[in-house]
Each structure stands twice: as C-alpha cells, then as structure tokens.
C-alpha cells in the first residue's frame, strides 16, 4: 500500500498536478503490469538519444539494460561483470569474457562484439570522457578473449572499462552514424521503447545471464521539474524518484527518502582564457567573496557539506592528505561586469546562482545571470561563453577514480574544460596522477593534482552534495548509489 500523499501548498500542488498529468500519461496508458512494473521519475531527459557514448549512458546503467566488462565495488575497485578476469602485461590487458551471455536481440556476446563496441567508443568524436588523454586499441584473441592495449602503460584500464560509456552492445546498435541501445544490451531489463525526451520503457529479459529480475519491467518518465518529481512520490505516480530537491525533501515522509554523501561537488568554474577572470587576482577576489556556509544552510537547508577542496567526504582519504594551498592575492573588482551561467535541471542551482550574485555584487562585481535547461546551455559553457559557470559535478562518476574527472575538467586538452584552463603545472600534476599505480601513491598524486588546480583559482569548490532519493513504501531493493550508476537492479521490485 502506498503512503498517502502529503499536501503541497495549493499553487505548488496545482502546478505539480498539471505537470504529472502530462508526464505520466503515456505510462498509464500502457496499463502494463499495473502495480508490478516499477515506475521511475528521472531528472534529466536524454540529451543524445540515449547513446552510450554520451552521458545518457548512465541512464542505461541505472536501468540495468547496458553492461560493461568490469564493474566497481563500494571502494572503487574493479570486479568482474561481462569479463570474468584480466591480467596486465605492460601496455596490454587481457580480458576473459563471460560465456553464456546473450544480447537482447538474441545474438551471443563474443570477442568480436566487444571489439566493435570499444573501438567505436575509442574513435568517437568527442570521445567518452573516460578516454580523455587515452589512446587504446582492442583486438580479439579468440571468441572469448580480448586484448586492450594503450599507447602508454595505464594502471586504470579495468576501472576505465567500468564506465557506462563503454557499455557493450550488439552489432544491431551500430548501424549508421548513431548508436541505438534499444534491444541491444545484455542486462536484466531490455530497453523496448524510447519516446523522445518524455519517457522510456523496459521489459524483463528472461534470458539474462545473471538470473531473472524480480520486476516485470520499468516505466521511466523524465521530469526535470523537482517539485513534480517529489509530488510523483507523494501521489503514488512514481515508485522511485531520483534527485529529490532539498526544498522538497522536508515535505516528504523521512522514511521514504535516503540521503547519502556523494562524490559530487557544487563548483564555480571561472573562465581563465578571456574576460574578467583571465586575471588571477580577480579570480581570487571571487573566491574570497563566496560564503559557502550560507549556501549550505540557506539553499541546501543543511543537507550538504562545505567544500574544503574539489574532493569531498565521499572520498575521506582526500581530507587526510590535503595540505594548505598557496593562492594569488585578491584584487579589486572595481565594478567589473561578469556573466554567470547555470542550469535549471538541478533545482538548487538557480538558487545558488542568485545567492552568489548578491555575494559577488557585495564584493564589487556587476553580475548578470543566465539560467537555462542544461541541454540548451552545455555547448555555450564548454565553449567559454560565460565568465563563470555553476556546475554540480560528479568527481568519480566514470572510473571510480578522481584522476579522470580532474583531467577531463582541468587538463589543457580535457573534454570538459569549462574554465578553459591551460596551465603547465596542472598538466604535469594530472599526468603524474594518471600514471601512478592504484593505491596510496595514486591517492597522494591525486591530492597533489587537486592542489595544483586550486592554486589557479580556475574553479572554486563551494559545497559537496548528498544524493536524496525517494522510494515508495512498497519498493524493495532499490539501489542507493553515490556514483549514480545503479538504481533499478535485478532484485528491485514493488511488493
């Protein structure tokens, strides 16, 4: 039995009701396995047609439809998935494939299929960010063995291959220039239908190599509005709701929400290439103007942690290794004009932007805000169109290792370099971190690279977020994953 909905204030309730009526209509119309299929309300709609070579890959992972050779345990160490084992020899890694695996279209998992998927990712433009700075080739030894070779010795190859962007799909997915995940994965749920940016449907795949899923299927609705997502949980429209906004968490029964410190940092990226923040002294002035504690208490209602660095409490070893960073002295803003961009998909970010606008104005800047949906602002952010950009950024999303995030965001040729940073000391530190074997030495090198970035003031970490997920009272086995890779699993079901 569902928990009765708590009442919203009337205007919010009406707005949420209108949104939900439109958002969930297609799911209700199917009438499939009512009360048994899992209804999921997700925050961001697909941006690239659910291509696994984009960030949409993490949706495929969270729905347990696309799988990788390797997965990560809670500590970020690699463990078997579609590959049962591996060994390193210099620049090459040999992977033994799991036998008896079939794709959703009935074809078998073979070395040829793995080679096709990984080589397509390696040759993509742009590359999946887990391959930033990495050149790799993949060859089949026999039907159940592949060898992955990198241009330089890379200790993180297994962790890289755990990224959902390197999912293995059947040959059918690669017809034409795009990659189509419908009916081409290997997971316990088969993606059967995608309705643009509004919804998707998955059915249980009864021939899954890992056993039979407990739920007959998943109905996904994309609901960018945070109030509407929370209302979906209250009303029983959704069984699982991802990314419940902080402002809505207090309106939900505490027993229906789970709060987990996550490796996600709310950061102000400053454009180091042109405009006001090309001057290190003005970047320092912006850093000193920011009162992160007031953001945590005000915008996040205490459901976040003030940032001491780019890496937060989800990686406790970072705090233990971190040392004070020497930074530039602050200059006088003297009325300089700046434009700060952010997006609406995460409900707190516009509020953070408004608060920062006041803090920076008080420090002497003239501040204009530009707020859009993420899909409509990402390209401008990456091209350096703003003086500053507020981003909620996962720091170990891809490999379980923050070196990949640091390289992607702050290396001179990083694919997500919003700060447009090109600093030789940072590049050197990032290269060292990437080349250091896993373990204590690598963690030390990662923290040194973080310090090199912080010394430039190209990014001002403000706070570390906590993931807030809503599960209806009759949902069993939903994943609460700080890396946002899992959500509905083999064991998830509705009582």
From TrEMBL:
TM helices/strands, residue ranges: none
Residue stretches making up the Solute-binding protein family domain: 79-415
Alphabetic keyword roster: Signal
Protein's UniProt keywords contain Signal: yes
Signal peptide location: 1-31
One Pfam family hit: SBP_bac_5
PANTHER family linked to this entry: MONOACYL PHOSPHATIDYLINOSITOL TETRAMANNOSIDE-BINDING PROTEIN LPQW-RELATED, PERIPLASMIC BINDING COMPONENT OF ABC TRANSPORTER
The protein's name: ABC transporter substrate-binding protein
Species per Swiss-Prot/TrEMBL record: Streptomyces marokkonensis
